[in-house]
Amino acid sequence: MARYSKKSGEMVESAMHREKKGTLRSGRSGKKVTNPKQAIAIGLSEAREKGAKVPPPPKRSAAAKKSTSTRSTAKKAAPKKAVAKKAMSTRGTTKKATAKRATTKRSTAKKATAKRSTAKHATTAKRASTRKVTGTAKRSTAKRATAKRSTRKTAAHHG
Question: Which helix (H) or strand (E) holds 16?
């Protein structure tokens, strides 16, 4: 008995051609697919969606699940809209959505950079304030020592 149907083979073949041509894109990020193995995986998943006979995807190990769950929590900071994803069915809206994604990525990058710069500024200000405090403490100690010396000298002259 065959594990894969003819339809699934055609879907994989189509995905491979699109990958070679440079038009195959990843589902989540929308990046261009350059890896043939990834193209096969995309073809198989498309075949599964259409209902073709394809075995279920391989089970992932606990370590693999753990690493992806930590990555996904970092991505959850900026939630994605499911409604917008459904609306992007035509080609023209896909281009707009890609441009929109790029701008949101840029804005989040800017925010991260701004956070870093403010954090750096805060630590620099802290260092400067501690330097000032230690500098004034050193000066006041030096003044006291000088005052003590001068009082000793005057006491020695008078006494």
Answer: helix 6-21
Domain boundaries, the chain: 1-57, 94-159
| Angle between helical axes of 36-50 and 6-21 (0-180°, round to 10) | 140
Q: Who contacts 25 (Cβ-Cβ below 8 Å, separation ≥6)?
A: 31, 32, 33
Rounded CA Rg of the chain? 33
State how far the alpha carbon of 119 is from the alpha carbons of 77, 112, 127, in Å: 20, 11, 12
Q: What is the pTM of this model?
A: 0.38
Q: Which tens digits make up the pLDDT trace of 56-78?
A: 888 888 777 777 666 655 555 55
Q: 84-102: per-residue pLDDT in tens? A: 555 555 555 566 666 666 6
Beta carbons within 10 angstroms of residue 19's beta carbon: 22
Q: What is the dihedral of CA 127, 128, 129, 133, to 10 degrees?
A: 100
Using DSSP, state whether 99 is helix, strand or coil: helix
47, β-bridge pairs: none
Residue 54 token pair: 């394809």
Question: Which of the residues in the chain have pLDDT under 50?
Answer: none
